[in-house]
Write a structure and sequence with these properties.
The complex is a heterodimer.
Chain A (H helix, E strand, L loop, with lengths): L1 H4 L6 H13 L3 E3 L8 E3 L1 H34 L9
Chain B lengths: L7 E5 L3 E8 L3 H9 L1 H4 L9 E8 L6 E8 L5 E12 L3 E8 L8 E10 L2 E10 L2 H9 L4 H19 L1
Antiparallel strand pairs in B: 1-2, 2-8, 3-4, 4-5, 5-6, 6-7, 7-8
InterPro entries (chain B): ASHA1/2-like_C, START-like_dom_sf
Protein name (chain B): Glutathione s-transferase protein
GO molecular function (chain B): transferase activity
């Protein structure tokens, strides 16, 4: 824990609190080694979440490109289905 | 964020996913494109072989909606029932979505807002899951294999086209 406080301008209790949140979220695991409690980054769930969001973004991007094209058509053609009603 | 047409997809808090997108069209037109079946069918398709042959919407509080996507290549259908909770045209829609084969852990509540921004319209869609667990399960699930296969096929076709 002392080692983790070094690169940050934060107190040990503050670092402790952040680590606990990350541990609860499954992003950090902790073991015991005599007086030390080494932290290990569990990157897999983080990677999974980013993968989903990126895939979903790509999927929506294709869909919204189609909507952009439709909107352009509606703007140029006085399409009766595009009224203000 | 000032870029037009940049989409953002983020996980927010314990049980939300938030999508934002800007459209280069007036708000009423963007609202119509999200609520009129004859317009929705023209864009809410994909990936690749997925069409939207069924789209029925009873746009009022308590009204129901029914969407069925169809895969023209393998014949698969994917249905979803919507229940509208609040309609404030052309500004805000609150509705619930439940897929026939529920992959969202009990359905979602979706709050969609459309804001004027100069000549453009800014859309924000908040997808709220039933629980933190349900949201986290969605984040852990890769999107359907069919979707990835669709992208892989597209990549191949593009590569072939380049090679030709």
């Amino acid at each position: 824990m002392m080692e983790l406080t070094e690169p940050f301008d934060l107190s040990q209790p503050a670092i402790s609190k952040h680590i606990k949140v990350l541990e609860k979220a499954g992003l950090v695991s902790r073991s015991r080694d005599a007086q030390r409690r080494p932290c290990k980054l569990e990157a897999r769930p983080l990677g999974e979440a980013i993968d989903f969001l990126e895939q979903y973004r790509r999927f929506l991007e294709v869909r919204y490109a189609k909507l952009d094209a439709l909107l352009e058509t509606l703007k140029t053609v006085n399409d009766p289905t595009a009224g203000t009603g | 964020m000032s870029h037009s047409r940049t989409i953002t997809v983020t996980a927010r808090g314990d049980r939300e996913l938030v999508i934002t997108r800007r459209f280069n069209a007036p708000r009423q037109m963007v609202f119509d494109a999200h609520t009129r079946p004859e317009l929705i069918k023209r864009w809410m398709t994909g990936p690749e072989n997925w069409t939207l042959p069924v789209c029925e919407i009873d746009l009022r509080a308590g009204g129901k909606g029914r969407y069925v996507w169809h895969n023209t290549e393998n014949g698969a259908d994917m249905g979803m029932t919507a229940t509208y909770r609040e309609i404030d045209a052309p500004h805000r829609i609150v509705h619930e979505e439940m897929f026939d084969e529920d992959w969202t852990g009990g359905g979602t509540e979706i709050i969609t807002t459309f804001e004027d921004d100069g000549e453009t319209t800014r859309m924000e869609m908040v997808i709220r899951c039933k629980s933190k667990e349900a949201r986290d399960n969605i984040l852990k699930s890769p999107m359907s294999d069919g979707m990835e296969q669709g992208y892989a096929r597209l990549d191949r076709q593009l590569a072939e086209r380049r090679a030709a």
